[in-house]
């Protein structure tokens, strides 16, 4: 509303007050936005009217002083009665009275009221009023007591909403510039809100409040407020840095700093114009704040990409300001003590170097925002430039702080693209600058933090291109070199603390098996140096105890070996005690790494011997309570003291204690054996006899032997002491296997490697001494155990004690089974007595008491252990023990009491009667420990029954059971599967394996149920590897028993269909779980064709083999087996192969049993099976013929379903495996070749990958060599319509290249040679380049065979003359050699002649398993995991070599050439030497002129294009710039 309109309105209105009141609204109403705007315009217009003493001033309306005073009072009342109440209503959301809701235009009414408030304040021109209004609004920015930071300020009673308060305060601030105290309070409140408000309101506060406030001040005021803001943000970030909220703080601080960047980084030229000469530049310089740079560096590696852009933007502004100022920063006045805390420097005399460094840095950081590796890789050379610039900067104080480089690596480590992450890790590992101690120290915390974080990523350890399976991954090799370089470069005093922190990191977070394996390997290669003390050994214990507990067994064992090597070479023996050392050694398991007799064990013995006397002495407590400390700590002294402590038991120990923790016995047993081996090695190294080992062991074990000798006679011996002594004895016996252990026992757990040292372990003097010493106390031990087992064990805790007794008894019986006197006593006295007691206990009526049920459980466990020992062949067949066991079935199959049916098996699946608890309470806490252990005891009771039943079926009365009993037994076994935990079902499966063949025909439905239930149980264990593999082995042995495999569909249709379906499901499971199919194919091959047929007759062997014809699909699947696993699964397999290839160098290969879970094993196994087939055997011949037809059918099905497939596809792999098997079977097929020859030639017309083509061509050549009468079939292939053959004719031309191999076998050689010449010549003129190339090569080779002779005959006028054809041939060959002398044609002509298939390869001489399965795939670009090395056939299976199919190639020529194809695309040479040739450069918007940014931009376009080596065009690229405060500041 203009002033003219206001004048007109007032002149026509006799009472302005009435108009004023009319525009106002009642306090309890909600005004329209137009009314508020009208009142705003009215007050604004009235306020601008001139003031006069009278009311008459010509045409203009004027206010008298009295009226103005009245008006101003009304304006002030508008603020308190209209504006603020209405804003409060808007904030509360219901602001209307009379039940009306707030209109939708809330924002519009807020703006209108704030505009009215602004006009009122400006009209009043009273700072006191504006101050009171500001103080009324200010509480809305503060959190009242009791509110949390998650709640918004301004939501309480009488306070404005925060968004309304922001708008209101923004119109009040211009009137408060003179009130320093109030504006400071408002600024503090605004900064507090920035720390607590949601992101959407932070930018609003910054722009609406802080900007408004700064715009109201002069230069000095701006400087003061900026300093206040900067200090507040820096202090906030500093105080929150250690907290988890630090990323949020960094994000908010960067937002504010970016928004204020135009105030903080005013260009130097602008400053000179705006500031008078008398005023000094008083604005704060953020560059002088260390915390500011911390904020920037945190922002550069922030997880939020906008925060990263803001940080980089601020860095660019700092660099630009420094360059514009052209002054040294920081000034030389900064003290030298502060130099280490200065992160950013600038020197005018090195402006170009600094500018290029920061340009490269910005380029790298901007590019790392991209996720595509092809975008990132071109700028990686800039990182080299950055590092070299920082490293070469040695003039005085370094200009580049290393922390900037760490930010680059951290960004790469946090990339979403694993390839970028890998590039960053590789780059850091190859960083040569870390050889400098200063850089190594500066990088140390980064190595321990972000670098260790990224190293936990398993995918980084995949093989690189060019590495074969079994090699150490490239990253593992680089990591080893890096660790050695890094620790060698660190200052001596820092190496120990850094190594300790690194080991602690290994134990303080989750690590997968592969990263921790290679980190351990890298640590094991560090140069020997005393760095680790007690804290270091404790950290290693945590790694072993926590980090690696769930890792794969072999990888865990290998990592243990590396860590033990590290501990031996890096421990400071003067700081640690032997107690520290052995507390660590107890965590290295004998069945995973630290096995006696291995090189690692011997290395540990040597280390202990060398360090003896240097260890820090332990404080020992004697029996009388005094503490002593020896001057010189020896291993023997430590062991003797530990033995004394171990056997020291309080006399008042409760006789119902649970069994002690076996960890103490494990530690002491390992220490005893180490002590004895140390002394033995010391004697041998000194040339002494090892006869002293017996005496040394006797003195060590004397306290134990004395205790054991009194077990049977001293009834007052504390129970805890007997338990501990037997635990120690058991571990000693287990760690020193008996020399006379049955071969069957040793074969139960074959090791990957059995070094000579381990093989001789059974004959060493320590084992002999152990057996001799224990022999002296074995009789009282056996008497004691038999007495205890015969009724003394009646408490629930005695069940575990019985397991200890039975384990000791079993070891003792196996150890001394060759001693006739002891063996006879065991068989005729001890065990018969025990068995009679056991049977009496089991046949007695059950007593529902703890004592009665524990006695039954112990009795059944004793019976099961006796059966296990008997199954190993320890007892004589005529002994009383064996006779009692043979009649064991009479107990289980005894007639039932009268109420039950006479054939009911009441003793199957017997359960223990649970004793009644106090008031039959259901509360576990009231029932005590009974419920906790009862289920376990009851399950073991049932498991032990089936152990006895399984043994009884093997050695019981010959012949099958009666059908009712047999079916009832099988039904009971099915029931047991549902009763037992999954880990205890092996004895049940073993029993079922003997029962299924007996009832398969008569009780087929029951057999189907048994197999189905068992298979479901196996599937349920797939996530539990500890129980899965033994259960799967037991299931396969049971379900695929040779008697069941021999069944036909006519005999048992339901069972055969079930077995076929389970075989299919098992193969499907093997696609995701490596090693599953291995179990089935190994079992089937051994069943159909045993390696040692034994006493079985030929008819029985043929009957077993004939079942293979019924399950041909299993053999066919094995021939083409090889799932494409996920990358993580493939990584585990490849690393396991790497560990296995280490051999004896890694003790885990000796300690960990081999599991044969190689995914190539099924193919290796079936090839070995096929190699043993004899063509003279009709069954063998029939099997091979049907298998060939089945494989050809698979190949044809793939060809029809998928015409084109990529090289690494499953289709390509399957076809390659098919033709490998067909090629391998060729010598055994004999007359059957003619039957399949047509299908082989038909396969040549199919479009195949190169590897498949080579195999088909090779097979054709071999067929024609062995059966030359089929040569006409080859000529017929060239007569097919050319449109149908297209490039597939190259396959047959490749066969003709090897005509020199076929020709000697042919009749009418000249005629066949002439046919070959005629066929080839017509293809030399094909329109297809590849066909012409193959034809010319074939023409050259064929002409070389007989060309000279034919020409000679033609010259002599012979009948075989060529009739001028020689001229055509020579012209073609001349053109091939001369006309194709340039460009790609020449290159391809040379390459095809040098290709392995047409050069070094000889189809007959190179025919071997090695060539088929390893060399050919490696030369024909087949994926590496398809290569089967010959050593697998030698090591994993029983391969039958023959003259027609050797395992290895007789000559190495083929294996020595490098893989490659004759087709290769040209690669253009890349030039990019120009600084900005390969990247785009962003413009910096805060510069005043484009020409200042890059001199090249000032060139004429043609000149610039020429300088960059680019073609000039008229294309103009226009890009928007986001690096501006208005965008980055929110």
Q: Could you name the ranges where pLDDT drops below 50 across 5 or more consecutive residues?
A: 95-104, 272-281, 740-749, 755-763, 918-926, 1462-1478, 1483-1500, 1514-1521
Taking all Cα atoms into account, the compactness measure Rg is: 45 Å
Oligomer: single chain
Which outline best applies?
A: globular
Give the CA-CA distance, first to last residue.
35 Å
Q: Treating each run of at least 4 consecutive H or I residues as one helix, how many helices? A: 72
Structural class: mainly alpha
Major pleated sheet? 2 strands, antiparallel
Approximate strand percentage: under 5%
Number of strands: 2
Q: How much helical structure, as a percent, in the residues? A: 55-70%
Question: Which terms would index this structure?
Answer:
mainly alpha, two-stranded antiparallel sheet, globular, 1530 residues
Can you characterise this structure?
This protein is mainly alpha-helical and 1530 residues long. It contains 72 helices and 2 strands. The longest helix is centred in the first third of the chain and has 28 residues. 38% of the residues are buried. About 6% of the residues have low confidence.
Question: What is this structure, in a nutshell?
Answer:
By secondary structure, this protein is mainly α.
Per-chain topology:
Blueprint: H1 3-12, H2 16-23, H3 33-47, H4 65-92, H5 106-124, H6 127-137, H7 162-172, H8 180-196, H9 199-215, H10 219-240, H11 246-259, H12 261-264, H13 268-274, H14 290-300, H15 305-325, H16 351-367, H17 373-376, H18 380-392, H19 402-413, H20 418-429, H21 437-455, H22 474-489, H23 492-508, H24 513-524, H25 534-547, H26 553-570, H27 578-585, H28 599-611, E1 620-621, E2 627-628, H29 635-647, H30 663-685, H31 692-709, H32 719-735, H33 743-746, H34 756-759, H35 765-775, H36 778-792, H37 798-815, H38 820-843, H39 850-871, H40 880-886, H41 889-892, H42 924-927, H43 930-955, H44 963-979, H45 986-999, H46 1004-1020, H47 1025-1039, H48 1042-1045, H49 1053-1070, H50 1076-1088, H51 1098-1110, H52 1112-1119, H53 1127-1141, H54 1148-1151, H55 1161-1171, H56 1178-1201, H57 1210-1229, H58 1233-1244, H59 1250-1266, H60 1271-1277, H61 1282-1285, H62 1289-1297, H63 1299-1302, H64 1309-1323, H65 1329-1355, H66 1365-1379, H67 1383-1394, H68 1409-1419, H69 1430-1435, H70 1453-1456, H71 1501-1507, H72 1525-1528
Antiparallel strand pairs: 1-2
Helix pairs in contact: 3-5, 4-5, 4-7, 5-7, 6-7, 7-9, 8-9, 9-11, 10-11, 11-14, 11-15, 14-15, 15-16, 16-18, 19-20, 19-21, 21-23, 22-24, 23-25, 24-26, 25-27, 28-30, 29-30, 29-31, 30-31, 30-32, 31-35, 32-37, 36-37, 36-38, 36-39, 37-39, 38-39, 38-40, 39-43, 43-45, 44-45, 44-46, 45-46, 45-47, ...
